[in-house]
Amino acid sequence: MGNYAFYIAAGFAGVLALLFAALLVKRINGVEPGNSKMQEIAAAIHEGAMAFLGRQYKVLIVFVIVLGAIIALVGHFAQSDRPDSLKPATAVAFVIGAFCSVLAGNIGMRVATKANVRTANSARTGGLNKALSVAFSGGSVMGMSVVGLGLVGLVVVILLFPGEYGVINGYALGASSVALFGRVGGGIYTKAADVGADLVGKVEARIPEDDPRNPAVIADNVGDNVGDVAGMGSDLFESFVGSIVAALILGAAIPALNNQGITGAGLIAPLLVAGIGTVASVIGGLFVKVKEGSNPAKALNIGEGIATVLAIVGAFAVCYFIIPQTFTAGDKTFTNMGVFLASIAGLVAGFFIGKVTEYYTSADYAPVKEIAQSCETGAATNIINGVATGMASTAIPIVIIIAAILVAFHFSGLYGIAMAAVGMLCTTGMVVAVDAYGPISDNAGGIAQMSGLDKSVREITDKLDSVGNTTAAIGKGFAIGSAALTALSLFSAFSQSVGLAAIDILRPKVVAGLFIGGMLPFLFSSMTMKAVGRAAGKMIKEVRRQFTMIPGIMEGTGRPEYSKCVDISAKAALKEMIAPSLLAIVVPVVVGVIPFLGKEALGGLLAGTLVTGFLLAIMMSNAGGAWDNAKKYIEEGNHGGKGSLAHSAAVNGDTVGDPFKDTAGPSINILIKLMTIIALVFAPLF
Amino acid sequence: MGNYAFYIAAGFAGVLALLFAALLVKRINGVEPGNSKMQEIAAAIHEGAMAFLGRQYKVLIVFVIVLGAIIALVGHFAQSDRPDSLKPATAVAFVIGAFCSVLAGNIGMRVATKANVRTANSARTGGLNKALSVAFSGGSVMGMSVVGLGLVGLVVVILLFPGEYGVINGYALGASSVALFGRVGGGIYTKAADVGADLVGKVEARIPEDDPRNPAVIADNVGDNVGDVAGMGSDLFESFVGSIVAALILGAAIPALNNQGITGAGLIAPLLVAGIGTVASVIGGLFVKVKEGSNPAKALNIGEGIATVLAIVGAFAVCYFIIPQTFTAGDKTFTNMGVFLASIAGLVAGFFIGKVTEYYTSADYAPVKEIAQSCETGAATNIINGVATGMASTAIPIVIIIAAILVAFHFSGLYGIAMAAVGMLCTTGMVVAVDAYGPISDNAGGIAQMSGLDKSVREITDKLDSVGNTTAAIGKGFAIGSAALTALSLFSAFSQSVGLAAIDILRPKVVAGLFIGGMLPFLFSSMTMKAVGRAAGKMIKEVRRQFTMIPGIMEGTGRPEYSKCVDISAKAALKEMIAPSLLAIVVPVVVGVIPFLGKEALGGLLAGTLVTGFLLAIMMSNAGGAWDNAKKYIEEGNHGGKGSLAHSAAVNGDTVGDPFKDTAGPSINILIKLMTIIALVFAPLF
Which of A200, B196, B381, B486 has the highest CB neighbour number within 10 Å of its CB? Predict the structure, then answer.
């Protein structure tokens, strides 16, 4: 350790991000929130979202106390003198990690549910650029909160427990636990509301999307915030933190990296790369501006491009000035430029995975066009084509990730793989901002629709939203790619921690682990999708009840009881997330402690989950995104347009894709990372 | 080696099976084929099936010559003194393996397309028992040909090249190559015809299934034979042969197993277990009889039960009398009863995987009922539920397979795993018989419908067919389970052959292999499903063309040009199978020879493919089977019955399930095994 100034510098990058977020919040609050109808709707969404968070916190607190107590207890009995030993203090770091992630999510969602109505109003009064600016500012608050609090919390933990990696792991586990609630619970919430609203509203009652007569419409809009803002944010918070923690552990294990030149260079580098990436994201965000009539996508791309270039320059500087020019790890010698190349490998991989996702999910390219074409022969051919496209879309991302892994390893060993993950994630602030901008625009459109604003307003928000669809798909690709790299480096840290020199797949117990691990994402996805089905079923019943029981609801004179639907989604989401969550937490521990399986089988298990999880997540996210955009493509007038048979087939595909891309797929990211972190934290037990 | 008498005894079991098949053929030929209309239709199906085989052979011969030449060439340059070295003679064994599998498929399909019409006629004149007897006899000919020719050919190769395992591997590769054509080509054929016939006939023209006015109806019936009889037979031929070959190689590597007591006991045991299982299948088949009015499923179960019990007794005798009481392998000591337990572990695992498959795909149990229920809210919820059910259905089979692997390994090491595969597959004759009985009954129903026989006939064939649906699902579970165990033992043989003491998943190149391997089944499935889509598209165009161009076709006065549709399916199937086949053959070789990947990465690749392939195959087969039976369940009058909205949703699910369960799912079995055998045969290159 040593050289605290550098740690504090990284912490300051986090503080800077938080200050920038505060500035943005002030700016957003300064925007007029529109007429009273708009404000009323926005308030309902805001309250629904905050109510869900409140309810979630009640469960989360119990969860954190129980798991924290277990950690403290196990830490008490299992602790050793090793720096990576689990200790009672791990529970403290765990609580801090959970707290920081919760706080980031709370701030992000609080602001997002204020930015949505202001985006709608800006579209009404100020046009495209103004609307984009508000929506993107809202997203940026989420992004800056994630990286800001992630960094600050981590630096605090490092300074509190210097050199105690077994304690620092707890911070990552805290982040993971919140991500579980955010992604799995949030994913179930959002799709229960969405599917429920669509099936009764659009299909049965034949009223349009975002119609205020639909009792589930507020829940649906709340869901966008719960799933796509808070859930996604907690997911990337976890990846961001997890990748740095893994790099710290692996970096600490290379004496030559820390004992020559700057003390603790191997630990400082990942923190500083993340810190500089954070500053780069702030600067990039300042450049997101669009002229009237031009494409908002271009503005976002410019912002991301600037952030990326600055991050690369920063990573170069860090490696050049901090890392020793040459150092030996094991029996190999590496250079500081090797570490730089490893970081860049991650960054580049993240970019290309995003591009591939765009290719497979945007209506500008052949795959979505083919899917739209297949809608002409009905729902079945649409589904087959979508599934096949999702499956095919795994190939190139696999090659990209492998290339990044091999390059990173070649240039700086296991530490290089961890640095690749850090490199990929260093611009997380920007990625989250671009990603969270989508649901805010989507919400703005919903509010415009529900409050009966002029068509031109909806046109602007639709423009923002359609860009948001693509950025959301890219963000999902990035989220799973970064989850895989993070999990892989945590996996290396795990094997180091349990003292496994090799995990040999010729040994049947490793094969057993590999098979079980490979199966878990299938079982987990099945559980989350069925959970959506059950929760949506409850929603459907309630909406049907209100349609028949509330007088004048269809004529717009009777007011639907929105809050009941919000309540159903929230309750169902929290109940339904229990079983899959337990699966993710219990299985690795059980496999690790069963005598005839043990840590080797656990290693196999983690590898198996990583591989099939990565594949399934990409397949489901991309199939879902492709179906969504094929439907939109048809709605633009192709293959018969709205109301045609092809459109009805496309709606079916879109509905299948909803739980694929917004519940099951992204939840797998959490499964992959959480299981690895659980294994890492409880390593002394195995 | 040595002790030829035992090899010859195993060969004689094969001869016995073939003699029994000949007897059955005579019996089937003695049954009246019905009226001239029935004979005419049957002749069209027969000719279509044989025409496809003829066309397939033309491509297959080229394939065999090219791959054989490559093997001979590589063998010429790469051969060494090691017994497992690839040699020019490997090409000879390869050709023999391909020939035996082709012959088995040819006999089986030739007879199946004679048994179908005789089953229909027996149902007309003799009732349920007579019809079952003919259909099952037809299936048994396929079953007995598979195991008979499999054993005889293998014994011939062993006697021609004693002790040269590198040559004997070629036999398995030959079987694999034919299986590729049978399963992938056959799978594309059958579903192109089925989907094409359904979408234009049932959906567009609203004529019933198996209506003679549909030009694709003969192609559809041909497809049942091509895919479900010949394809399935070649798949299990490959597993049957592959499991024995792997056991031979692993057995030969344990000197203590072969040098004390009976010389070559480790090699004799797998052959004899397979031989006794074959005899047990013949005897079990004799007990398949049903009383009028009772359930045909019971009769099949009795036959399988008897075969299984006899096989267990036989395996016990083999292990007791042949294997040394104790022997050491590596640093462990095993017993002959341990080998027996290992074999039984496989047999038991096969049984339970079948039962789990039945649970998830039969309308008697909750999963299919739930799927049928979800049809009430439309196609999308049906699809989501089916996919989720398919995913969940992977969990227990994984646990079963792992249990079998761990038990087998515990009791007799890697040899035990191979013996578990042999144990699972020793009753292949019976499994194939029960499996092939289904499509024959299905065909019989089609012929009854097309030739306008009395409703009571169709009722009998429907009864046989509905049992056949369940047995087909069980057969698919068995096929993938056995593929996994076979591939795993071939994998062990591969690692021995390339001299890998460990394949360490902590090494990035192994991780790279694992990722690529894991991805291949996704890409492969995507390719086969899209192939079905394209081929079905061509079929649809042709059927539409005939509907509009042939005068009087809809009134039944104009005769459809059936052969054109048969031709389209055949051409498309053979064309479309090229790309996925190359993937399976080329990727392992390329990964093996690329310097920065190499044999370690190849090991990871095979493991990755095995894991995700097993999972995807089960998921797709079971989802498809469940959708199929949910549709039938609704057609029985549940949830509104035929013509209801739920039914239309169920039809969509069934159509999605078709390529899942009959093309992509089963084709993965081939991918898993073929890749491993390719790696094993070309091991000297790596």
Answer: B486
